Amino acid sequence: MTALQQATEVVDPVPGADAPHLPTPPDLVQLLTPEGQRLEHPDYSIDVSADELRSLYRDLALVRRWDVEATALQRQGELGIWASLLGQEAAQVGAGRALRPDDMAFPTYREHGVAWTRDVDPLHVMSLFRGSDMGGWDPLATRFNLYTVVIGAQCLHATGYAMGLQRDGAESAALAFLGDGATSQGEVNEALIWATTFDAPVVFFCQYNQYAISVPIERQSNVPLYQRAAGFGLPGVRVDGNDVLAVLAVTRAALAAAREGQGPTFIEAFTYRMGAHTTSDDPTRYRLASELEAWKLRDPIARVKAYLSRSGLADPAFFAAVDAEGDELAARLRQGVLGMADPAGTEIFDSVYAEMTPPLAQQRAEFVAYHQGFES
Amino acid sequence: MTALQQATEVVDPVPGADAPHLPTPPDLVQLLTPEGQRLEHPDYSIDVSADELRSLYRDLALVRRWDVEATALQRQGELGIWASLLGQEAAQVGAGRALRPDDMAFPTYREHGVAWTRDVDPLHVMSLFRGSDMGGWDPLATRFNLYTVVIGAQCLHATGYAMGLQRDGAESAALAFLGDGATSQGEVNEALIWATTFDAPVVFFCQYNQYAISVPIERQSNVPLYQRAAGFGLPGVRVDGNDVLAVLAVTRAALAAAREGQGPTFIEAFTYRMGAHTTSDDPTRYRLASELEAWKLRDPIARVKAYLSRSGLADPAFFAAVDAEGDELAARLRQGVLGMADPAGTEIFDSVYAEMTPPLAQQRAEFVAYHQGFES
Amino acid sequence: MSTETLSLGKALNLGLRRAMEDDPKVVLMGEDIGRLGGVFRITDGLQKDFGEDRVVDTPLAEAGILGTAVGLAMRGYRPVCEIQFDGFVFPAYNQLVTQVAKIHARSRGKLPMPIVVRIPFGGGIGAVEHHSESPEAYFAHTAGLKVVAVSNPVDAYWGIQQAIAAPDPVVFLEPKRRYWEKASVDRDATPGPLFASRVVRGGDDVTVLAYGPMVKTVLQAAEAAAEEGRSLEVVDLRTLSPLDLEPVYDSVRRTGRCVVVHEAPLTLGLGAEIAARVTETCFHSLEAPVLRVGGYDTPYPPSKLEEEYLPDLDRVLDAVDRSLAF
Amino acid sequence: MSTETLSLGKALNLGLRRAMEDDPKVVLMGEDIGRLGGVFRITDGLQKDFGEDRVVDTPLAEAGILGTAVGLAMRGYRPVCEIQFDGFVFPAYNQLVTQVAKIHARSRGKLPMPIVVRIPFGGGIGAVEHHSESPEAYFAHTAGLKVVAVSNPVDAYWGIQQAIAAPDPVVFLEPKRRYWEKASVDRDATPGPLFASRVVRGGDDVTVLAYGPMVKTVLQAAEAAAEEGRSLEVVDLRTLSPLDLEPVYDSVRRTGRCVVVHEAPLTLGLGAEIAARVTETCFHSLEAPVLRVGGYDTPYPPSKLEEEYLPDLDRVLDAVDRSLAF
Ligand SMILES: Cc1ncc(C[n+]2csc(CCOP(=O)(O)OP(=O)(O)O)c2C)c(N)n1
Ligand SMILES: Cc1ncc(C[n+]2csc(CCOP(=O)(O)OP(=O)(O)O)c2C)c(N)n1
Ligand SMILES: [Mg+2]
Ligand SMILES: [Mg+2]
């Protein structure tokens, strides 16, 4: 039985689930089955220590805990909106952990898991969703760009950044994140052209989470997304996005190739958005609950836990400790969000330009005077 | 010896020519070699009567004659600019002749050869380049859209039109023209996505004439353009764009498939822009004369003439008659251009809207009054 | 009786439905407008009733939406495109400005271009970046487009139908934060013209102009001003291109004072054009310069700051005071 | 002696060269700018001397040019992007408006965005569609961008260097029909500031403003007016965003009359904003409304009609007459 058959097998028995989006062999790279069984792959072997495995588990679990807390905070009105990563933890943690410190990541608006691996303070992400700023972290210091809301725009940024790396003679790479829907944007396709034309050290990491809000893949492509790459002359790989080891291995290989001057790669991480598009969304309008049930059996965290347990690499105390750490994290985040100060009104004006203009300075002065008028 | 070897063979002996852009087997569909030898192709057979062959020759020759005359008229200041089709006659006549009357063509700014096959009066094309209008023909009556100058924009129009054909239950197709440079535009790639997503009856006809102004293909793609198609899930075909029979056969087949509901096709016509990009351009700045010399041996008209002569399908009198017709045409066009009346100033205002607006009507009235002021 | 109380969003939904019933050539296109009914549910239920060929969930690419709409229009259809949020119209900008706006002129009238581009616009909903912008000046500066902004359910119901019936491309701006505001709509009434402004409150002291979401704000300001004995005449501009300023000129000739209010950044916002025209036309009647209240010349701020960014009742009254003090 | 007679185009070429010599982080990007030297030869010879990594012939996609420039800027480069013609900036509009203009604010200053977008703009060269447009108002309405338009070789030479050195994104508009106009340029001089307007001819009767290609037209009009005994003060605006109107206010307070001239369509062109501001600031000094001379509110016409479309000396004088007649 191939890895893929094993992977799909667990889905078949779910009553009522049509599980319409399962890949067919031999396309999917998988190193850890949904049941937690390790597989070998001829092109993508990986050697992970027990420590590393446990720390991957920890990342996955904490990122999910953060996500759950953020969703709760949104429900309570503390965040304006939240874009949940539920179900995509392995794709994001795997890709993020493949980065070296000198690499640069270009996220969309959902890569909280990558942010985590870049040591971005979750509160700096949540302040964006609260409406206090547009992301509180330092994108250059963390080498994690600010979130980009306009679908696909960051793919060109990543490519340009990679062209800069080339000119600097830096042995680093850029990692651009995008969604399945984003592949339809002209700019994303231009990024593929630029990347191949200039052999730029950039990797495109597409999380195919089955939906662009309500729209399934049939509206974006009639061939699997990783195959798009070949038409532009770059390698395309499809990886089980719910398998953190496979994602890590595939992304590491692609980044290494980019750093070594072998040019760009397009990775399709086959995964599922287990939550709503955002807290404003109502997925019951466009998909069956049974679909989610089917995907629960492919949960990205459960399989790592199963593997760690079964192989004796972690004991119940370890899992309990991670749980406890998650609760602490959640408490810290909750407290942090509740305690967030509102930004000063003058921030509207202060960063529009590096060199403030006289007319804007005047608007700012009038703004200050007007609001002082109310106070006095 | 394969068709392709035959095709390339004639190029090799040219002294000094590096002929850098010759395709490698087995990609190129060819039915008539540069020496005028008929070939068979397993997928693209074609049965052309002697009449049809002669009339294809006539189209090619007259279109070139028109082009030469237009270039001369530009040099004499009668046209503001001219975009020559020299060298691309077979690609354009072949594609144009593949259309049925109910099909609709969407040209760029260079498809004079297609215009000719749609019975568009050349003067209606030249009035555009003279600056009298933006194309004088009726795009719906001729089923030949107006020229589109913004690179690539027409590919989406053609796709949308094809979606309209679908909705109408019409068994017709749209044919979108584009250049090699245009393939880099995001919108063009979006058109491929739309076309495949909706299985629209549209054919993309890309004239790979080796340059986007001065820029060679290396700056647009690192794989042959027809391979771009596969990444989007549509068939891609490369045809010898200097072989009118092959172009006719390939385009006919693609249009037929589209009409029958088999969806879009991407055709790359491998050809060469023998002239400058436009009369404003100076190609000596970016390409060697030897390249042109090499391509002259692949001339799209010479091979038809050779075939017609050698096979006895046309005699010298026929060629002389076409020549004479060409001279008549040129004379008519020259006279027509010289006699073109300048447009009335009020045309600035009159077609902006289907329903004129009061403020614009006022501007128009002021314009008229102002100019009457000068007259009186 | 066909009079009922409808939200602005529901009025649009019913207006679209009626337009689709009236003309089989009307096709809706956009992201998530089909099964989901649009993120604001403006197209709710329409795909179910009219099918996937007439209510098209498109790929995620705005240039594609507008560009294919052009082709459909050439084929005799009347595409109605939804742009999901104001800030996402820019990928379609090339098609809108170089194609949709120019094809009628390019073809000297031979190619019809009856495309409607629906855009929920403006701020005040506590959203993240790009979901609260007011790009109308870009469109109003573009010859070949017509631009309207509705402010209430009645205009929404009729306006969307009139825009669809119009032979020219219309950018149809919907004040997203007013989607849930209700009014009584008589669906048997005969609507007034689409491209016309309207005096929505009579007054003598200052003429105040607004459109879309700011009409309500200005009406509230007029209410407050009335309590202080100041009488504001309020004009709902409704059409931003062409502008219909005759009623404004009439008003300003009486009041001698004019204030224009919009959410868009001040510089080169609609207020600039209106100030220029009103001043040129009513120069001798003006007792104060036309004053403008708008967003600041900055990107739309994070939502915690939007109340300070957006014109509100107080800022309108402040401008009225300044006008009167001239 | 470094003073020599240069055409505007050559001055740009030398200015770019000097900027590239001064700062190795300056990278030029655009279509056909390398081997060909650009369709107007503005980058002639630069790829030969600075190599393909610093003078980049790009794929044919304007969004790609601007979008990769953003990434290069984040990496510490100073990209100078050429848009081949005004009408082809729109595919890049999304990157320009939603990214280039907003990233500095989005990052609260943490991400530098020193990008220059060079655009040959305006008409008068007998070209086909999309090669003669004046899109400057779109940029000036976009907070986060700075916009300048040069009118002469001296400003071209210094201005392009100053724009490249500026820490903010600058849309740099080049009056293509003046590329061949010549002037004496002292390359050792100390230039004045980039973001400042300049009185280029003193006068007492009417203040006339222009920028880019229209400065020459207005100066010719002033010459003609002088012969009829009318004294025009001419201001070259130079910076369209931010506007620098203090010199204009000073002038208008003296003359009491103001005319703004540009090629762009009248509605919501720069003239609208200037009229609004001048009126607000100089209300009591104005003896006539600010009058505007511009292109009509239509697409740019076929070139046989461009002389009738574009403001010329006569239309400027006509507006001056109308202003004086108020
Ligand atoms: C240019 C643009 N158009 C529309 C939107 C609205 N929008 C936000 S997310 C989204 C769907 C994105 O789908 P996908 O790329 O698959 O990413 P996912 O949300 O699934 O992670 C849409 C349409 C946007 N943000 N930007
Ligand atoms: C959007 C846009 N950008 C730039 C241009 C300027 N331009 C005109 S033709 C051309 C090259 C086109 O090359 P290609 O697509 O190969 O067509 P060809 O001219 O070779 O037929 C360019 C860059 C344009 N017309 N439109
Ligand atoms: Mg998705
Ligand atoms: Mg070409």
How would you describe this structure in keywords?
heterotetramer, A: 376 residues, alpha/beta, Rossmann fold, 2 domains, six-stranded parallel β-sheet, 15 helices, 47% helix, 8% strand, globular, disordered N terminus, C: 326 residues, seven-stranded mixed β-sheet, five-stranded mixed β-sheet, binds thiamine diphosphate, binds magnesium ion
Descriptive account of the structure:
Chain A has 376 residues and is an alpha/beta fold. Chain A is built from 15 helices and six strands. A six-stranded parallel sheet of chain A has the order 1-5-6-4-3-2, sandwiched between helices. Chain C is 36% helix and 21% strand. The longest helix of chain C is centred in the first third of the chain and has 15 residues, at 8-22. Chains in contact: A-B, A-C, A-D, B-C, B-D, C-D. Chains B and D meet through helix 5, helix 14 and helix 15 of B and helix 11 and helix 12 of D. The site of one magnesium ion has 6 residues of chain B, from loops. One thiamine diphosphate sits between chains B (110, 149-151, 179-182, 209, 211-213, 273, 277) and D (31, 60, 62, 84, 88, 91).
